[in-house]
Amino acid sequence: MKRSKNLVVLSHCLLNSNAKVEPYASHAGVNHDVVFPYMTKGYGIIQLPCPETCYLGLNRWGMTKNQYDHPSYRSHCQQILQPSLNQIEAFVKAGYKITGVIGIKGSPNCGVLHTCQGFQGGEIDHSRIDSQIEQLTIVKEPGVFMEVFQQELELRKLKLRFLEIED
Ligand code: SF4
After folding, report:
1. pLDDT digit string (tens) for 40-87?
2. Residue whose CA lies nearest to ligand 1 atom number 8
3. Which domains does the chain have, with CATH numbers?
């Protein structure tokens, strides 16, 4: 039996940079700097869904946590997380070790310790862009998707370690 019984949970775009909001993408596809060490050590990888691409597609604007923070968006996150949660629960119950969850620093959704706040929305207008950008701040709290993920894990009495990386 070759299986390691070790797993890591990654934010979607660490395995698929194409999902990121334009024009960001630190890698052509897979972030091999993060993924390769896990591959060589025999870890299995659980890829979380990308909440933004599933909800708004690839033409979305860059937004901040307060803009995503709406009950219907939270219920979208809750819904798309269920297959991953079922999988995680099955592995934990079977005695597999999940070393942790890696999110994306500063993301309005996948930030773990840092997210962004401030954009107020409204029409794109040259006279308002500067003031929108001035309102952008990084705050020390999780993004919406990771917040919902942590709540859902708690409901299932599953404890995972969370960390974030710059990507
Ligand atoms: S950080 Fe999260 S929401 Fe943003 S592209 Fe990556 S997976 Fe999608």
Report:
1. 999 999 999 999 999 999 999 999 999 999 999 999 999 999 999 999
2. 50
3. 6-62+71-105+142-165 (3.40.1010)
User: Measuring from each residue's beta carbon to the nearest atom of ligand 1, which residues come in under 6 Å?
Assistant: 11-13, 19-20, 50-53, 104, 107, 109-110
pTM above 0.85, yes or no: yes
Q: Which residues contact 9 (CB under 8 A, 6 or more apart)?
A: 45, 46, 48, 84, 88, 98, 100, 101, 102, 160
Question: Any bridge partners for residue 65, and if so which?
Answer: none
The CA angle 18-153-113, to the nearest 5 degrees, is 60
Q: Which atom of ligand 1 is nearest to the CA of 104?
A: 1
